[in-house]
Write a structure and sequence with these properties.
three-stranded antiparallel sheet, about 20% helix, about 70 residues, about 30% strand, alpha+beta
């Protein structure tokens, strides 16, 4: 499992960042070993890894939590 961080230019709207995140979802969905994924746009996920500090809520940030077989 791993995280993918998406950071669009400062000032990007939440809907525009969401569009980028949905594009990434479409790109990863055909990966054969993909078990599942979850996307969060705006705030980061709660702490999953002890050494990764969650992002505060901003409109130009998205994060995907991805699990593979």
């Amino acid at each position: 499992m791993f995280l993918v961080n998406i950071q669009t230019p400062l000032g990007t709207s939440l809907p525009a960042t969401d569009t980028v995140a949905r594009y990434v979802e479409r790109e990863i969905s055909p990966i054969p070993d993909l078990k599942n994924y979850a996307t969060n746009v705006g705030p980061g996920y709660p702490r999953i890894y002890y050494n990764v500090i969650p992002q505060n809520e901003v409109s130009n940030y998205a994060q995907l939590f991805i699990q593979t077989e």
